[in-house]
Design goal:
Layout (H helix, E strand, L loop, with lengths): L1 E6 L19 E2 L2 E2 H11 L4 E6 L3 H9 L8 E6 L6 H8 L7 E5 L3 E2 L3 H8 L6 E4 L9 E4 L6 H5 L23 E2 L4 H13 L10 E4 L2 E3 L10 E8 L4 E2 L4 E8 L4 E2 L4 E3 L2 E2 L3 E3 L4 E3 L1 E4 L2 E4 L5 E3 L6 E3 L11 H13 L3 H12 L5 E11 L8 E9 L4 H4 L3 H7 L3 E3 L6 H6 L14 E3 L1 H5 L6 H14 L2 H13 L12
Parallel strand pairs: 1-4, 1-6, 4-5, 12-13, 13-15, 14-16, 15-17, 15-18, 16-19, 17-20, 18-21, 27-28
Antiparallel strand pairs: 2-3, 6-9, 7-10, 8-9, 11-12, 19-24, 21-22, 22-23, 25-26
Helix pairs in contact: 7-10
């Protein structure tokens, strides 16, 4: 037996989710929609598949299914114009041979019904058998046996835009089977939450149980205390800040960042999305900087990347180049004679540990390949009031990629959150650095507004030649008496 899987929906009713992704590849609680059908087919012993794809068909073949080796299956792909009549597709396939064909849609979500259907179909005579899953014929399963006459008439029950009704008699029945055709954004939202909450019999969420009601994917970072009530799924490589709150039923996709004190309630956060500090989201689907309210139908595009953003988008912060890292290594080697002096000065200062640290916002993306959210790092410093010696450990941040040699001054997350005016965010257009006009001319205890003003001016007037000047000024400071006098 082979399977004919229709996955050719254009998905206009699910825009903007389907602007760049086929309906069959939309993630539903941690897994692409089409995979639920494929895994059920393989579980039923059907390993020869013909997949009908249209928009983004290459994504289906290359990014998701391949040739089927992962499941021990063989997959053949057929291109469609999109939502084409199944009978027209059938006429081009030449599948009327000695093998039976199980036809179904792979871009809908249904309870596992295949095994029960095939068992019941054994007792059904004739050249075809069918099983209606739910009230919509597009969720049905059709078994076409060799010799089936006019199979196109039956297949058109699977047509997306104009499905024909199934025969009224002799169909197989799978009790308690649930179908969601994902025919709208609220239906997509419901499919995710229903699967998470166990309201689709036979389908379970894969992952590790972090706490009662909290499931996490591979390398996900989330603490049990983040789930205040209800159930939640956090996808692979995602990070939920310990101060964030998950309420009701929450599905968070892969490679997502939920920042400090954000609140997510009864919502679906799609992969590679950044949710900023203190942001509240309820009854919504979020994809990058697009927020879709399923209760009101509102579709909002958020322009402020610190509220909502895509981790696929190219951010305004420049990444640390390998030249900065190499220069950081060179400067670290040249500064080795200063480290004993730094240790002695920190010991004589009586401030406690020789080395201290504070959390800062740097340049590195929270995930590889994404710049929408910037990770925090520990900015270390020597516990001395002598500026040159105090900031020597900053070279390690340059080598690690959190800082550039020249840029705006690092801010703590608290200082970053205090910024409320547009001019204060001009600094985000340039990287954070170890050296810069703010670091060279202002003390560490200078007012935040003064530092932001200096950073904004630097961002507006920055050039390669000026950066070289600041770098040389930093080197000259080693021979400047002010750099060796206590400031704090």
């Amino acid at each position: 037996m082979r399977a004919l899987v229709f996955a050719d929906r254009l998905g206009l009713e699910l825009a903007p989710l389907t602007d760049k992704v086929a309906v069959a590849l939309l993630p539903v609680t941690g897994k692409e929609l089409l995979l639920y059908t494929l895994e059920e087919l393989v579980g039923a012993g059907i390993r020869e598949l013909v997949v009908v794809a249209a928009a983004h068909g290459e994504q289906t073949r290359v990014s998701t299914l391949g040739e089927g080796e992962r499941w021990g299956a063989s997959i053949r792909y057929v291109l469609s114009r999109g939502e084409e009549q199944p009978a027209a597709v059938w006429s081009r396939l030449n599948l009327a041979d000695a093998d039976a064909v199980l036809a179904l849609r792979g871009d809908v979500l249904r309870s596992p019904a295949m095994g029960e259907f095939l068992h019941q179909a054994q007792s059904k005579p004739g050249t075809f058998a069918f099983c209606g899953v739910g009230a919509d014929p597009r969720g049905s399963l059709l078994l076409l046996r060799p010799g089936c006459q006019a199979p196109g008439n039956l297949l058109d029950s699977l047509s997306w835009d104009a499905p024909k009704p199934l025969p009224s008699e002799d169909g197989c029945v799978v009790a308690d089977a649930v179908l969601n055709c994902l025919e709208s954004l609220p239906a997509f939202h419901k499919a995710n939450l229903d699967l998470l909450a166990g309201r689709i019999p036979g389908l379970q969420v894969a992952g590790r149980t972090v706490a009662l009601g909290l499931i996490a994917g591979r390398k996900a970072s989330v603490l049990p205390k983040s789930l205040k009530q209800g159930v939640a799924y956090v996808g692979a490589n995602s990070r939920v800040d310990p101060e964030a709150e998950l309420l009701g039923e929450v599905v968070i996709g892969d490679n997502v960042v939920i920042d400090r004190a954000a609140t997510i309630r009864n919502s679906v956060i799609l992969p590679r999305t950044y949710v900023g500090e203190l942001v509240e989201i309820g009854n919504a689907i979020v994809a990058g900087n697009q927020l879709m309210r399923v209760d009101t139908g509102a579709l909002l595009t958020i322009s402020e990347a610190f509220l909502l953003g895509s981790l696929d988008a190219t951010g305004t912060r420049a990444r640390v180049s390998r030249w900065d890292r190499l220069a950081g290594v060179l400067l670290l080697i040249l500064s080795l004679p200063l480290w004993p002096l730094a240790g002695a000065a920190a010991a004589l200062s009586g401030r406690g540990p020789l080395m201290a640290s504070r959390e800062c916002v740097g340049n590195r993306a929270a995930f590889p390949g994404g710049d929408g959210a910037v990770r925090r790092f520990k900015a270390r410093y020597c516990n001395t009031a002598i500026p040159v010696l105090r900031h020597l450990p900053g070279l390690f941040a340059v080598i690690q990629g959190d800082l550039r040699l020249v840029g705006v001054s690092p801010l703590t997350p608290e200082q970053d959150a205090e910024r409320s005016e547009d001019w204060q965010r001009v600094r985000d257009q340039v990287p954070v650095g170890l050296l810069g006009p703010t670091q060279l001319t202002l003390t560490d205890d200078a007012p935040l507004e003064e530092r932001l003003l200096s950073d904004a001016f630097y961002a507006q007037t920055r050039s390669w030649s000026k950066d070289m000047g600041y770098l040389l000024s930093g080197v000259r400071m080693l021979f400047n008496g002010d750099a060796w006098r206590r400031r704090l």
